[in-house]
Amino acid sequence: MDKAICALCDVRVRLGGFEFGPITHTLSRGVTSLLGANGAGKTTLMQTIVGSRKPSGGSISVGGDTKATVGFLPQDFAAPGHVRVTDYLRFIAWARSSRKSAISANRVAEALERVNLADKAHERIAHLSGGMVRRVGIAQALLTNSDVVILDEPTVGLDPINRAEVRALIHEIGADSAVLVSTHLSEDIADFNAGVLVLDEGRVLFDGTVAGLVATSGAQAVSGPGVEHAFVELVQGQRK
Ligand SMILES: Nc1ncnc2c1ncn2[C@@H]1O[C@H](COP(=O)(O)OP(=O)(O)OP(=O)(O)O)[C@@H](O)[C@H]1O
């Protein structure tokens, strides 16, 4: 088994009067799907890993470093339509650079290659399809060349062709990095067919593989409907 790249230990987050967690989980190279009903805490967990929410307890380390940079595609990713793709990514690269570690123009070109948008580098963002804009969002998440990439609902709202392209891209990113992907689409989870973390009301309900999740409802083969059935049974069983 690959060694842990990101380790979460007893992570808790205070949300008004409610405390999310504790979550203990490790992410290794490959894709892990994050699953949960609306309000289960998927975005909260992702925002906490990337550092935009402060945990009220526990610890998060990436490659042994508690302040490492993590690539992130937020759920509500949007980019200014009048700006050209390369100019947008160069601006993000500049904004994320520091005196000690500058993100080079080469890194922008590499990120565009990785998301298969090199031929759209000089296009205005408003002229791209929804699937291409999502890939621009993934490109900005790859600029920091992080070992951990967090993608909040990267396939939502895409047609089946664009969804399959984004899934293929996520598989490729998972070959080098630990990728955590939240999605409500059981078809995505069956396609990733790797690790899965199921949350409910801020707690871990299941931590294992997609095959293991499907097996909880007695099914043998991994499929979209099989994932959905197992997920519904798991959550409803917990709430009884
Ligand atoms: N600042 C806050 N104060 C109180 N409650 C909050 C706060 N932020 C989030 N919550 C609540 O915490 C819960 C978790 O929200 P979160 O957005 O993480 O869920 P989610 O699993 O990503 O949902 P969805 O699938 O709808 O995107 C929700 O019930 C939300 O209303």
UniProtKB/TrEMBL annotation:
Claim: Nucleotide-binding is one of the keywords in the record? yes
Residues in domain ABC transporter?
5-226
Pfam families documented for this protein: ABC_tran (PF00005)
* An example molecular function term from Gene Ontology annotations: ATP hydrolysis activity
Q: Which keywords describe this protein according to UniProt?
A: ATP-binding, Nucleotide-binding, Transport
Question: What domain of life does the UniProt record list for this protein's source?
Answer: Bacteria
Return the similarity comment.
Answer: Belongs to the ABC transporter superfamily.
Please report the name of this protein according to its UniProt entry: ABC transporter family protein
